[in-house]
Amino acid sequence: MEPMIVQLLVDYEMAMAGLYEVCAARFPSYKDFWLRLSAEEKGHAKAIGSLMEKVDGKNVILDATVFKARPIEISIEYADEVAKRVSERDIDLLGALSLAADIEKSLIESKFYKIFTGSSEILYETIHRIHGESEGHRKRIEDLKTQVFNTPPSFDMQSDDMGISD
Length: 166
Known about the structure:
Layout: H1 2-26, H2 31-54, E1 61-62, H3 69-87, H4 93-104, H5 107-111, E2 116-117, H6 121-150
Helix pairs in contact: 1-2, 1-3, 2-6, 4-6
């Protein structure tokens, strides 16, 4: 059961990376923004998998009771659904930013680090890095959301940039 929870957390990070890749393709003027988030989520997935390999019951301890499997599965399904809606043009840029901000504020995203405990320096550094990057995601998404919300549409912009269908 314990490795399954960790694998679900890895899958969750990869679902987020996939969502951000879809956003990069859908909103080309913000491609670099979305691809940076995606790359960081992939790094989180790799780091979480790495931590699982270091679990020894002493320096790195896994507490799989922090999360139940189903909420993580639902979060993965939700990220996949949002990605589908973005790719189908059902969500504009402001909507994608709002949903990404909500996901980044989710319990799973903000509490994942509690699943691992211990005294390992690598554990501390990895958790600290992922937590800091996740906080950075929230801030960057909120900042761009505010910028997009406060910027009047320009007739020079490509229609895909704002999510406006032809």
